[in-house]
Design a protein that fits this description.
By secondary structure, the chain is mostly beta strands. Helices cover about 15% and strands about 50% of the residues.
């Protein structure tokens, strides 16, 4: 005969394990494009899938003085939609020499 408390605890743990898992655990990377100009880095992410998704977008810009500027955005993309994130520099002697963009997404349903 099994212990009812132990069985109830096992059932509760199983339900929490199945329903409490984060959506971020099933996140996937999508191709993010970076466009580099001397005073701005533009990161672009596109939803090519038939389902809405939520994405974390990060854009890094390397300036000529070695400093890295970063921008981050949390966006929701419908199918066929674009979203942008920007990094700017407005000081005249400082300009961007390199940049990159990353996007980490998961489906909303």
């Amino acid at each position: 005969m099994s212990n009812p408390i132990k069985s109830l605890a096992l059932l509760a743990f199983s339900l929490l394990a199945l329903t409490g898992t984060s959506k971020e655990a099933s996140a996937f990377f999508v191709a993010a494009q970076a466009q580099i100009t001397p005073n701005m880095i533009t990161g672009e992410v596109y939803n090519q899938f038939p389902r809405p998704m939520s994405c974390s977008v990060r854009v890094n810009g390397l300036r000529n003085d070695g400093f890295v500027q970063t921008a981050w955005a949390q966006v929701t993309l419908m199918p066929g939609a674009y979203e942008y994130a920007y990094v700017y520099t407005t000081n005249y002697p400082l300009y961007f020499i390199n940049g990159e963009a990353f996007a980490d997404c998961h489906y909303l349903f």
